[in-house]
Amino acid sequence: MKLLLLNGNTDPAITGLLMARAAAALPRLGLGGATLVPETARFGARYVASRAAAAIAAHAVLERIAERIGPANPDRFAGVLLACFGDPGLEAARELCPVPVVGMAEASLAAALRVAGNRPVAVLTGGAAWVPMLEEFARLRGLGPERVRVRSVPPAGDAIARAPERALAMLAEAAREAAEGAGAVVLGGAGLAGLAERIAPRLPGVPLLDSLDCLLAEGVTAARRPADGTPPRPAPVATTGLSPALARALGAGAPGGTPARQGPAAG
């Protein structure tokens, strides 16, 4: 089974980190039959840490999916793993993509809620700007503060990825504080992948989930699930200034996949 591991950040070092952590995690999680193909967003922030950067990343994610999953590409992917916490472009990607698209944050919340039972879930990530963004992400899925509590440490995820040893004690202390009254804690963020396993022994009594582990498990499960009919495609639209692959994807909703005419954008 071939899965596209798509990093919505533009830093290739983060993609390399994700692939290295995933190579160790797949057999540990009993997912040895999955093969990951890495891809990195072509444009945008080196590491997404704001609403503006997330909006740009959503465009970059759609472009990469259109290029890799489109009919012109010989690869046959069983699913897409959106490995960027906050899942920029997730719903739009599902609209365009004929195979399952799974987001790191959404998969992590689902896994944590299963573990937590009736108790709330705590999410711990890097960068204060992510707190309101992830609270909003949870609310849009019907999960208020009584179900999902978001906490952060000051360094952004890319800084943690560059010097993980310096961050372990700080993350462990923040995880202990976040775990008060919680049924599970998610250590979320592409730059934090693989650190939950090292911090978990310092957090007795409350499960600490790694967001990459959650993404891999849910992504493989979704790819193995029988397709439930043909997903509806959006109506074709004329576009201006997009990459050829993305323009084709947005214009291919007509019968037979005829691209919509390129033209001026509607005002």
Automatic annotation (TrEMBL):
Domain of life, source organism: Bacteria
One Pfam family named in its UniProt record: Asp_Glu_race
InterPro entries on file: Asp/Glu/hydantoin_racemase, Hydantoin_racemase-like, Iso_Racemase_Enz_sf
Positions of the UniProt region annotated as Disordered: 224-243, 248-267
Recorded family membership: Belongs to the HyuE racemase family.
Protein's name in the database: Aspartate/glutamate racemase family protein
Source species of the chain: Caldovatus aquaticus
